[in-house]
Write the structure tokens for this entry.
Amino acid sequence: MNAKMKVLALALIGLAGYAGSAVAGCPSSPVPPWTSVTALSGSAFAIAAGGLDGSACKATASIGQSLGAIASVTDDTPNAEPRYRFQFLIDPDAFGSFGGTDFVTIFRANSTTAANGTQNVLTVSLVPGPAGVKRVRFNAACPADANPSFHCAVSDTTDLPAGMSRIEVDLQQTTLNYWINAASGTTEPPATGNIPLGSGTTAWGGVDKGIMGLSGPSSAFKNAHHDQAVGFDTFDSRRTTYIGW
Amino acid sequence: MKRNLLVASLAFGTLFSLSAAAQTCGGPTTWQPPAGGSNVSGSTCGGDTTAAGYCGGNLDAPGPAYVIRSDFAAGRTFGTITLTGGAGYDAVMYISSLAGGCGTNAACTATGDTGAGIPTGDVPDGQYFIVVTAATFDNPASCGAFVITSDGSFPVTLQDFTVS
């Protein structure tokens, strides 16, 4: 059974559905199907030609030179989801090499209610690896029995290749599985990595919002990588089934 | 003829800077800079901890916040609101609509930090909260001193004027 969230399928139509469009131009705005777009402190989130998956269009995001800079789109259709699976493509080549203290958020999942001072249940970030390469870090909210800081995080050791990368996450209340550039197929392969979430995240009430784009840059990042537009594409989210490609 | 100028913020016309203990959602500092500009200095330590996030969930709220209430109207003379921050945290400022509430994770109208001020063009006329707090990546409870400065008026607005 494909338990795909019907409402969130709209988001897929929005960024991937352009591939099949006979219309030559791309939409002028990501809203709709996204609920809202945020661009602050000299940042920009736009639609441009040249999809990352060979489709006609993609989204681009660039941030201004500020710690408060945001270039993102928000999907408000999740409804206190106890399990939230999502996938998107990112091409961060425009950032060039990463310095040792460069980092920036590329996706956030927020909850219905706040617990332990936050509604953020997952932050996915680009972080530096050795010799300027980029890697992905997953930082999930978790109960104190998993970590007294209420944060359970993993920086994956996979160096992102040049060009597009595909990131998929299965966020459940007691565990998080993620895939980075999984092989083609719709049968769920072994996860690239996993984060145990202890006794569970029920205190947060489930995922209520997905935010894709750039935010929360480190000081080094916003100084070195402001105004560099990177590509996002093909966002999809579901409740239970593996997405794949 | 009696003239009553009941201007809630008129007092600020004679004060060019404010300094106070950290202000909260329940009791924010009112700031209406005069034509020559003014600043607010204080500390976010001991400030408001209501927020579980900022800017519609785009940013975390790791530290306490100093909350300011300001109105922006036509006739404003300010060009930029700037921020300086002390040790112990990475100071940022977020502006959000009064209608969105305080500490509610409402969408932001404008943001800035110590290196990037908020230009007048980023803030439409209206009623706002200005929050000074720690950057999203700071450690829990991060806080410190700050000075937020306007180089002109928002402006000071006349709340009531009676001639009898």
User: Anything to note?
Assistant: Chain B touches chain A at residues 49, 52-53, 55-62, 90, 92-94, 105, 107-108, 110-113, 115-116, 122, 135-137, 140 (CB under 8 Å). Confidence is low (pLDDT under 50) at residues 1-16 of chain B. The domain at 24-154 of chain B is CATH 2.60.120.380 (Jelly Rolls).
